[in-house]
Specification:
- With 318 residues, the chain is of the alpha/beta class.
- It is 44% helix and 20% strand.
- It is globular and about 55 Å long.
Length: 318
């Protein structure tokens, strides 16, 4: 019996993730958790999804609830709830308003689903991952932020489209902050196993332009359609399926570091990890050039400062 709970299930990303997970046909039960005043909407989403799932002969049990008792025995608890970015806002602008929401859901998860893995998608995701970790008291390997998984998929897409090759041939990764201080690991990017620098002439690929497009991807989508949904929803469901299938894939997620990368500790940042059925098996060692190291250190400092501000706010308003 595999069970997943989604906090914020009536939101754009929450409902998209729910439907994708239900269609994966590897989960027995999904709890669409919503606030009491949103429970009718959650139930409506449930009915709508059942119609589609029946057409595909998929039998996944869906439950709409605002009662924490219904999250018992969840294998994974996903937190997507929170204030979403609007045009002109940075992810860090959401830190204070979203911290109380994430703190409460993580605290209740520890009470009602103490054996679960917490996956955080609420922005700013690196800061919120620390909030969830400290509120739950869980082992750090069982509290995972979406981190740079989506950023890595975006970079893979940009490079493959620019070079007009199958995206499967592009092996690249983004680390650091899911935000302004994200760090594309271009020094270790390969195309079909060939280092990027050997595959193309330096002048034939607008790397600064690609990096700029990567860092502004979310803002660009929001400015044009008001919200990001398909990319984040796929990245989240992909993470959850990777964990539940015990596939031992390497993905870039946010984890509370304890000196594994550049001796950085006490902050959540996106780094490559091996994921398995019980969360994070290990942080994968990586090599960076001097510029990437400098940028990663900047990401660490930025997130540490934002996290400390959130800690103070939560303490003052507890």
């Amino acid at each position: 019996m595999v069970k997943v709970t989604i906090f914020g299930a009536t939101g754009t990303i929450g409902k998209n993730v729910t439907f994708q997970l239900a269609r994966s046909d590897i989960i027995d039960e999904i709890v669409l958790f919503a606030r009491k005043n949103s429970i009718e909407r959650a139930t409506g989403e449930l009915f709508d999804m059942y119609d589609a799932l029946t057409a595909e002969d998929i039998d996944c049990k869906l439950i709409s609830s605002y009662d924490y008792k219904d999250i018992k025995n969840s294998d994974i608890v996903l937190i997507t709830a929170g204030v979403h970015r609007t045009e002109g806002m940075s992810r860090l602008d959401l830190a204070i308003p979203n911290s109380k929401i994430v703190h409460e859901y993580a605290k209740q998860t520890a009470i009602y689903a103490p054996d679960s893995i917490i996956l955080v998608a609420t922005n700013p995701v690196d800061v919120m991952t620390t909030v969830a970790l400290e509120a739950s008291g869980f082992n750090r390997r069982k509290v995972i932020g979406l981190g740079n998984h989506l950023d890595s998929l975006r970079l893979k897409t940009y490079i493959s489209k620019h070079l007009d090759i199958n995206s499967r041939e592009v092996h690249t990764r983004v680390i650091g902050e899911h935000g302004e201080h994200m760090v594309p690991l271009l020094s270790s990017t390969t195309i079909g196993g060939i280092p990027l620098d050997y595959f193309v002439e330096p002048t034939s690929l607008d790397l600064p332009g690609i990096v700029h497009r990567l860092k502004t991807a979310g803002s660009t989508i929001i400015s044009k359609k008001g919200v990001t949904e398909y990319g984040p929803a796929y990245a989240i469901s992909n993470l959850i399926q990777t964990i539940l299938t015990d596939s031992h894939k390497i993905l870039t997620v946010s984890i509370y570091l304890q000196g594994e990368i550049l001796d950085i500790s006490d902050v959540c940042l996106g780094v490559p990890v091996i994921l398995y059925r019980h969360g994070i098996l290990m942080v994968v060692p990586i090599s960076m050039d001097d510029h990437e190291k400098e940028e990663f250190l900047k990401a660490s400092q930025s997130i540490k400062e934002a996290t400390e501000n959130v800690r103070k706010h939560l303490k003052e308003n507890s």
